[in-house]
Specification:
The chain has about 325 residues and is an alpha/beta fold. The chain is built from 11 helices and 12 strands. α5 crosses α6.
Length: about 325
């Protein structure tokens, strides 16, 4: 880790997190297997940092975020927020800690209640958790609208009267309504026009700086993660295969999967684009219902060895602050 990260306390610590979904068949709905959406991952997030989580669709990124927030109960593992174990909390104990952790959902069209005005959507969490009521809650709602770049007089409008980018700003305002410390940004720009994406990303960076927020930024766009995040974790089929500072991961990727992801991303310079070496992965991503033995990437890896098909590689630090799960190191 860098000196700056060592000096910062750990806000969130995830250890051996698993989330398996049972597969049921037959008249009696017996369990015949498990979809291993998140399969034994561990990482830390420091106070005030943004950790990016990238990977293909279906690799378990969103499930990881939801399992951390206890929106979906974890199958195994521990999640500590400021030293408090979240996976064991239930009922009122879990409700009391929810203001500290919030989520910005991917789809701004489905994450807002179409029958609820924007003001009511912002005031409701404050009322439920006793943060503010009455006039104070209304003033806080107007303040949140201004904070995300919207006219505070729009609080009496409905979601259908706003564009996708404006709705995502409202989703961000709702996440901020309880003054959280930790926010999961679940692909907050993937459903927006390219012209709007940069505005939302700049807004998230400004809010992180001004409000001293901590992010888990989930995305499939490596270039955007590099811009937003201090560190990047690369995920494949439920496993984190590489974790390091964003610049280091982009400049010198260690895992063959990370190298393939970066090679697939287009470059704005046409001369450089013409000289780049393409890494074409053969085959399809294996089913999380029956992942390969050994390394999960062994069926598609261009540098696969015999040991990869038999032994799961340990996730270890091979350079200062740079961890990878690969038998090549």
């Amino acid at each position: 880790m860098t000196t700056a990260q060592i000096d910062r306390p750990i806000l969130l610590s995830v250890r051996n997190l698993k989330k398996y979904f049972p597969v049921r068949r037959g008249l009696l709905q017996r369990v015949v297997g498990y979809v291993k959406a998140v399969d034994d991952i561990s990482f830390d997030i420091y106070e005030g940092e943004a950790l990016g989580l990238v990977g293909e669709s279906g690799c378990g990124k969103t499930t990881t975020g939801r399992a951390i927030l206890q929106l979906q109960p974890a199958t195994a593992g521990t999640v500590l927020l400021e030293g408090q174990e979240l996976t064991r909390l239930r009922g009122e104990a879990l409700r009391r800690i929810r203001p500290k952790m919030q989520i910005i959902f991917q789809n701004p069209y489905s994450s807002l209640n179409p029958r609820m005005t924007i003001g009511r959507a912002l005031i409701e969490p404050m009322t439920v958790h006793g943060v503010a009521r009455g006039k104070a809650a209304e003033e806080r709602a107007s303040e949140l609208m201004s904070l995300v770049g919207l006219n505070p007089y729009f609080v009496n409008r409905f979601p259908s009267e706003f564009s996708g980018g404006q709705r995502q700003r409202i989703g961000i305002a709702r996440a901020l309504s309880l003054n959280p410390q930790f926010i999961v940004c679940d692909e907050p720009i993937s459903s927006l026009d390219v012209s709007i994406q940069s505005q939302i990303v700049n807004l998230l960076k400004r809010l992180q700086r001004d409000l001293k927020l901590t992010y888990l930024f989930i995305s499939h766009d490596l270039s955007m993660v590099r811009f937003v995040c201090d560190r990047t974790a690369v995920m494949y089929l439920g496993k984190i295969v590489e974790l390091g500072e964003s610049d280091a991961v982009n400049r010198r990727p260690l895992h063959p999967y990370t190298q393939a992801l970066l090679a697939a991303a287009p470059v704005a310079d046409p001369d450089l684009e013409a000289t780049r070496t393409r890494i074409v992965l053969e085959g399809d991503v294996p089913s999380p219902l029956n992942p390969p033995a050994g390394c999960h990437f062994s069926t598609r890896c261009p540098r696969v060895m015999d040991v990869c098909r038999r032994v799961e590689p340990p996730f270890k630090e091979v350079e200062p602050g740079h961890q990878v799960a690969c038998h090549l190191y």
